[in-house]
């Protein structure tokens, strides 16, 4: 396993300063929950779920639940992406996961109540990037329409994995915003404690054919760092102003 000293040393080479986000009624904010489904977050719930209790993932779920509750209380818009695959269509390089209609592609138990909330839009996606996964066959985009219909100026993003589905979604949103497709969206904010990634240490990956090592703490940091380098804001605290 990579030592924590080594992780700290690597982090120093790509230091990440994080801000605080204070949400107010002045700038309309939308919350995006990326793939907080059983297949990625609930113990022993499939090929890509944690096999042992995972602090980072559990912390991400707790923070997401807190935010979702607050957004629903205020009737602010929430967009929940759910990884969901047809059983016959693989998603290389990953093993089968989150097959549509199974518990793996459902929100974790602590968030299942969102299915009945009026301010929540659920979107099943069968690819890594939730922006692309929001495209319809006719070329329209459910996410773009959601931003416009709700007049969203600030987007707050949480979920899993920091360096995969969260990062790809954030990068696409930033490009779309910069091209003027997401007016009135201004800021894309990633909440670090509301994100998590999986752990596949190098000594384990070595024994799995074709697997890439994926040390959790380091890859989480790298994901946040790249998101910031592309133009997202990264915050370690979110609070609700008056
Ligand atoms: Zn998937």
UniProtKB/TrEMBL annotation:
Residues 30-203 form the Isochorismatase-like domain. This is Isochorismatase-like domain-containing protein. Belongs to the isochorismatase family. PANTHER family: NICOTINAMIDASE 1 (PTHR47297:SF3), PTHR47297. InterPro entries: Isochorismatase-like_dom (IPR000868), Isochorismatase-like_sf (IPR036380), NIC1 (IPR044717).
């Amino acid at each position: 396993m990579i030592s924590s000293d080594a992780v700290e040393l690597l982090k120093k080479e790509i230091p990440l300063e994080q801000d605080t986000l204070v949400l107010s009624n002045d700038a309309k904010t939308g919350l995006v929950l990326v793939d907080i489904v059983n297949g990625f977050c609930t113990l022993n719930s499939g090929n890509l779920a944690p096999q042992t209790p995972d602090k980072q993932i559990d912390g991400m779920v707790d923070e997401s639940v807190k935010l979702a509750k607050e957004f629903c209380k205020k009737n602010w818009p929430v967009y929940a992406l759910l990884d969901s695959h047809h059983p016959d269509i693989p998603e290389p390089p990953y093993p089968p996961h989150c097959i549509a209609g199974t518990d793996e592609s459902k929100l974790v138990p602590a968030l299942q109540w969102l299915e009945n909330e009026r301010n929540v839009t659920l979107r099943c996606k069968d690819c890594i990037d939730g922006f692309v996964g929001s495209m319809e066959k006719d070329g329209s985009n459910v996410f773009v329409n959601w931003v416009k219909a709700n007049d969203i100026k600030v987007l707050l993003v949480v979920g899993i994995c920091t360096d995969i589905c969260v990062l790809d979604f954030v990068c696409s949103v930033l490009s779309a915003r910069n091209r003027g497709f997401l007016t009135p969206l201004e800021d894309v904010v990633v909440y670090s404690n509301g994100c998590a990634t999986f752990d596949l240490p190098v000594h384990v990956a070595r024994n799995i054919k074709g697997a890439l090592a994926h040390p959790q703490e380091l890859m989480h940091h790298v994901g946040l760092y790249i998101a910031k380098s592309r133009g997202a804001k990264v915050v370690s605290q979110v609070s609700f102003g008056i």
